[in-house]
Amino acid sequence: MDLREHRSTAQRHPWEVARFQFLTQVLRSHGLLPQVHSVLDAGAGDAWFATRLSGLLSDSAQFDCWDTEYSPAALADLAGQLPANLKLTTTRPDTPHDLVLLLDVLEHVEHDRDFLASLVAASLKPGGWLLFTVPAWQPLFSRHDVWLHHFRRYAPAQAHAVLTGAGLNVLESGGLFHSLLVPRLLTVVSERLRPPVHAHQPTIAWAHGPLFTRAVQAGLDADNALSHLAARAGVPLPGLSFWALCQRPA
């Protein structure tokens, strides 16, 4: 979760849970769980994803959770909640890692190509893996993107070009959250037809009951299954997000 969205709550948004389940299945299908030993979570936010992933790896696996937005208060708050093998840092570790997570981060970076090339060269082992997600489709850029300090959303071809330009081989990729495209499109159309009177106040916390939460989760799980099928078949099915599993040549 982006630190601008973080709130102390035990209930995670179903979107976040569904993304975790999908991406860990991608890692598992390529034989990376539980074999990975060192992980860099770049732009780790509140480190929820890394914490969950650590439970799927061996006890000896080490995580560097890097985020330039960590304040001293955030570091103190988060550090006491994390497993011992997760380390929080505000500076990029230049030790090469087996796996780099770059999940909904690159859209925050103005000079995205330079950033990614530097990250791969310094922090990813030759033969190592990079798991990548970004929000998709610039026409869907909304007030929420502005609030989150996004510079852009990515078309699949644009994301591929950034990844390969950093020296990565894209092994598998596709769209994610296909069912959320229409709601986001309607939101963007509404914003443009009726400009807001007040500043954007995003809905951050998920406070719905268990029945509704399970229904939403089931819908997103079905969405995930469609994403897996489309990726395996090589069908470029558009989604609200774009994902890719990449490898640095050995």
What do you see in this structure?
- There is one protein chain.
- This protein is α/β, with parallel strands linked by helices and 250 residues long.
- It has one domain: Vaccinia Virus protein VP39 (Rossmann fold, 3-Layer(aba) Sandwich), CATH 3.40.50.150.
- The chain is built from 8 helices and 7 strands, in the order αβαβαββαβααβααβ.
- It has helices spanning 14-29, 48-54, 72-79, 112-123, 143-147, 156-165, 181-193, 210-233, and strands at 38-42, 62-66, 86-89, 97-103, 124-135, 169-176, 241-247.
- Strands 3-2-1-4-5-7-6 form a 7-stranded mixed sheet, with helices on both faces.
- α1 packs parallel to α8.
- The protein is globular and about 50 Å long.
Write the layout of secondary structure elements.
Layout: H1 14-29, E1 38-42, H2 48-54, E2 62-66, H3 72-79, E3 86-89, E4 97-103, H4 112-123, E5 124-135, H5 143-147, H6 156-165, E6 169-176, H7 181-193, H8 210-233, E7 241-247
Parallel strand pairs: 1-2, 1-4, 2-3, 4-5
Antiparallel strand pairs: 5-7, 6-7
Helix pairs in contact: 1-8
CATH class: Alpha Beta
Q: In percent terms, what proportion of residues is strand?
A: 15-25%
- Kindly, what is the distance between the CA atoms of the first and last residues, rounded to a whole number of angstroms? 32 Å
- Helix fraction by DSSP (H/I, runs of at least 4): 25-40%
Known CATH architecture: 3-Layer(aba) Sandwich
Beta strand count:
7
Radius of gyration: 18 Å
Largest sheet: 7 strands, mixed
CATH fold field value: Rossmann fold
How do the strands of the widest beta sheet line up side by side? Answer: 3-2-1-4-5-7-6
Poorly predicted sequence stretches spanning 5 or more consecutive residues:
none
The secondary structure category is alpha/beta
CATH homologous superfamily?
A: Vaccinia Virus protein VP39
